[in-house]
Structure formats: C-alpha cells, structure tokens
Amino acid sequence: MKIDTTLSAIVTGGASGLGLATVRALREAGAKVSIFDLNEEAGQAIATNLGAVFCKVDIMSEDSVLAGFEAARAANGQERALVHCAMVAGGGKTVSWDKENSRYKRAPTDGFERGMLGIAVASYRMASIAALGMAAADPVNDDGERGTIILTSSCAAQDGQIGQVTYGSGKGAVNAMVLPMARDLMDVGIRVNAIMPGTFATPPMLMVKERAPAIFAALESSVPFPKRLGEPHEFGSLAMELIRNTYFNGQCIRLDGGIRMPPR
C-alpha cells in the first residue's frame, strides 16, 4: 500500500511506547494519523507536535471507540490502516502462596476476564469497526486492497511465563484471530496481520532499568542477538513494512531478537 499524504491511519495506544513509535514512523512517511489513547494530556501534546489528530478513546468501551472512529474519520477521512497497540491486561499466578494468611490463593476469575476483554475482545472491537469502514471504501490499488489491520500480540502467546496466564491467553487469542479474520475479509480486500514483540524498551521497562538495573541487565542478556531490549522504532519499522508490503497477510510475526524463554 502506498504511504503518502492520502493514507489515513489510526494508531491505538499512540501516546507512548510502541504506538508512539508507529505514529512517528507514519507521520515521517507523510501519512495522516489519528492517535487513540486515554492519556489526553500526552496524546494531545504529541498530536500537536507531530501534526496528528488526538482522540480520547477507551478501548474497553464500544461507545468510546465508535466515537473515536467517527472523530478520526471526520478529520482525516476513512482510515486505510489500523495499528492496534493499546491493551488492558492483568497478571498473577493461577495459584500462589498467600504469606499473610498462610494458605494458597487463586487469581480471581474477574481479573482474567478483564484481561481477556482488554486484549482479545478489544482487538476484535478495533479490527471489526475499522474493517467495516474500509469495506465500504473504494480500492486503493490494482489488487483491490481497501485497507490493512495490524494487531499487537506478544511472544507470550507462545512462550508465556509464570504469572502470564491472563496476558498469554489474551495474546494467544489475538494470534488465533488473525488468519480467520484475514480469510473473512479477503473478499473485500482487507489484510490482517499481527506483530509479536518480545521485551521492548518501553516506559515500563525503562522504569525497571532505573529501579532494578540488575533485573534489566538480565533481561538484556537473555536475548540471543542483539543482546538488548527492542527499540520502539523497530516495532514501528515493521508496522510500516506490513502496511507497504501487500503480500503480507494472515501472519503473526515475532520481533524479539530470537528470544525463547524457559519457564523460569
């Protein structure tokens, strides 16, 4: 797909981390970008600085998401690319030892449910609403393509660690969504892919570096090569290639420096 001033894109979670890196990459290529995020102060400042549009959107709310799409389309026209980075997750071991009460406890079901809503359900919500708009638009190239959807999964979908049963399950559901959704949308010319990042130097990880440098160093050394955490711009670069290269479809692509994590 051609990336220029005619391309309209939406990036969720675009006020920080991987989403922000993708917003920057898209704007540098000349695309019109709408940022969906809950952080209004940061999101508006970034939008002003980069020449994007900010929409305050809660991915857990259907009404909020629909209003965000309406505002983005009013400003930039029908999006032809969606990069969904935002999520609401949770953690905790399935069963763990409660020192205070000297007994085992389980992670509550409502926490698991919230994580699935914030990862899997939110991914479907964003993708399906974007696809509905794209399907009604004219094709953008000779292949009949009308748009592309990029979801953010995780290596935890395949290599989930201790305490990641909710996160890993949610991201696994995202992976499982990609191929059938791509097949659902093939007749209207919409591609669907997912990026599976490993450990990236996003704001939460930079906090680890500051507060627990030994843990951060261990994380870096666990990556085969290069022995460092991923840089957000590397995620943005892959997102751009998935938009440009129209033969990518139905794929879940690891971006992790070759890491394969053991259970401990």
UniProtKB/TrEMBL annotation:
Keywords: Oxidoreductase. Pfam families: adh_short_C2. SUPFAM superfamilies: NAD(P)-binding Rossmann-fold domains. It comes from Blastomonas fulva. This is 3-hydroxy-2-methylbutyryl-CoA dehydrogenase. PANTHER family: 17-BETA-HYDROXYSTEROID DEHYDROGENASE 14-RELATED, SHORT-CHAIN DEHYDROGENASE/REDUCTASE.
